[in-house]
Design goal:
4 strands; 6 helices; four-stranded antiparallel β-sheet; flat; alpha+beta
Length: 167
């Protein structure tokens, strides 16, 4: 099978007056901004199709974990119909994009970090780090992967409405 090159990219966009970030794959850098919903390309890297899809999977899993954690902790986040919430600052999005792109370059580091990311879907890596369950490189990578999930939003959800006491 021929492994063609693809552009892995990070762009900002707007759809129905709702701003969002978008991480995706296109076969041409000219096609990125052909999408009428995308406004500006912030990162783009030309890499093989399989590599682009692997990295895209990790980035999306990272964001899913992040948003699941925010929701679990009752933080209010605007979830757009398309892409990633614009409530997350660009530098935070870029850090996640760059981390997974850079980590992919070393197979052993990639496999370790991807495994930790999958574990992070179920449990916080902080608990494993503090309990001493992780040692050496695994501990070092776990601290980095956990830091990619550390974003907190300042506003909490209102978990229940206050009813007047006389009703």
């Amino acid at each position: 099978m021929f492994n063609s090159n693809q552009f892995l990219f990070l762009a900002s966009g707007v759809k129905n007056d709702e701003e969002f970030w978008f991480v995706g794959v296109k076969n041409s850098d000219e096609n990125i901004l052909d999408d009428t919903n995308l406004l500006d390309c912030h990162r783009k890297e030309l890499i093989g199709t399989e590599s682009a899809n692997d990295i895209l999977f990790a980035i999306h899993l990272n964001f899913n974990n992040l948003f699941d954690g925010l929701e679990k902790n009752k933080f209010l986040i605007n979830q757009p119909l398309l892409g990633i919430s614009h409530n997350i600052p660009l530098d935070y999005i870029e850090n996640i994009f760059d981390f997974w792109l850079d980590t992919y370059k070393e197979e052993e580091s990639w496999e370790t970090c991807l495994g930790l990311l999958k574990i992070r879907k179920r449990i916080s890596l902080s608990n494993l780090i503090m309990s001493g369950s992780l040692k050496g490189n695994s501990k070092r990578w776990a601290m980095k992967v956990e830091s990619l999930h550390s974003y907190k939003i300042s506003s909490l959800k209102n978990s229940h409405s206050n009813k007047p006491m006389w009703t």
